[in-house]
Amino acid sequence: MAFRLGPLSCLIGTSLNIFHAERHTRFQNSLGYDTHDQPDQLQMLQHQAGQFESWGAFDRALPLYEELLAQRKHIFGDDHRDTIAALNNVALLLFRMGDLARAVPLCEEVLKQRKRVLGEEDPDTFVSINNLALLFSRKGDLDRALPLYEDCLASRRRILGEDHPDTLLSQDNLALAFIRQGQVDLALPLYEEVLAKRRRILGDDHPDSFTSLDNLALLLFRMGDYNRALPLYEQRRDKRREILGDDHPDTLQSMNSLALLFSRKGLYDRALPLYEECLAKRQKILGDDHPDCLQTLSNLAVLLHNSGEYKRALPLFDQCLEKCVRVLGRSHPHTKGMQSSRDLCAEKISTNQ
Fold first, then answer.
1. pLDDT tens per residue, range 94-153
2. Do 13 and 286 meet the contact criterion of CB atoms below 8 Å apart?
3. C-alpha distance from residue 180 to each of 66, 222, 240 (Å)
4. 188, 148 in Cβ contact below 8 A?
5. Are 141 and 177 in contact (CB under 8 A)?
6. Pairwise CA distance, residues 33 & 80, whole Å
7. CA pair distance 341, 299, nearest whole angstrom
């Protein structure tokens, strides 16, 4: 359940809290890997490990990947491309397991080996630079992540071209790293350029174009540039309606986000019908106790409070508080934040009587 609570704070929700570039700042798999000349036993190990990993059974996948790495070292040697790919697979799985302490030195070793064996300009080397940068970023070590992202972007631009999908991916990654470091002014032109290129190359309706639209809209929102963000938020809502339908969860999240933006601009009369429509649909589709319903219900309560309609807001705060107590417990920080919001609303009613 994704909350951002405090006295009269809006529940923004996960899809607003996390920039969508996070989906593209991904740990990339090895490229150019060919199993046709591998012994059957190695192919079987690779298949079994991949199956367990796809099922989320990481504890069962890890020893298989480690066995595969050991056997490739024995058969092909440390410097063979497929041995390095196997080492990368172990590092990737450790990353997915959240074991960054073990994943980082393996990624550093993969990058060192690929630079030496494959060369500085091999696509797999670029992947390893991206992966190591992502690991440092996830560890909060942006001082080490940023130069790697910049190196990867410069290399991909030079070798693959300005418009290659991997180049645009690196541009997204670098922008997100700048955002995490608080340098939003450096991230903004990168996001603007990626959106323009993806729309030109892939079209407005491609998922990657959607992601870039989200990234730019959310960054402008974060910067407080609501006037520039507004048309992008409206495009997000309209495109999702057109492609996904009125009742799709992503459409409803876009509607909730647009209402939040109207609310931040003080346009309560435009936000209110969006929140009410979004809440009604979420309750019908997801049920009253779904976190997304609580998100919109809280947003609606805050909107009514901010517009001075305290008597309409209070029963909504009461509903939110009851759900927080039931789901999270009375001592949870989110419950305490909701209690504060509810009490402040009740105080306003008492003062105005």
1. 999 999 999 999 999 999 999 999 999 999 999 999 999 999 999 999 999 999 999 999
2. no
3. 34, 12, 28
4. no
5. no
6. 11
7. 12
